[in-house]
Amino acid sequence: MSIRNKLKIDYWDVSPRSIKMTRNSWGPPVQLTIHGTFPESPEFESSDPDVVQVDSSGNVYPGYKTGSAVITVFDSWRRESTRYVQFELTEQDYGSGYGYW
Asked: 3-class SS at 62?
């Protein structure tokens, strides 16, 4: 048996790696995508749910407080391997206001 057949390398990743949203954004959530394979379902956790919320399916929703947070993605409930997504929530920029009353 060749060395290639003996090696088992488990690799996985998440995308996007960074997300920037405005506080008043409406629309569908941003879906985190898992690349690679692992035996169990991933788990998602926000470092600050007031800035960003993430559900068990990896859907990202903006919170009500502007700022930055980190979404941690774990390979399973065992939390043996992690990936990180940077998140920033900013205020809505309405531009100069000309032509809008």
From this structure: strand
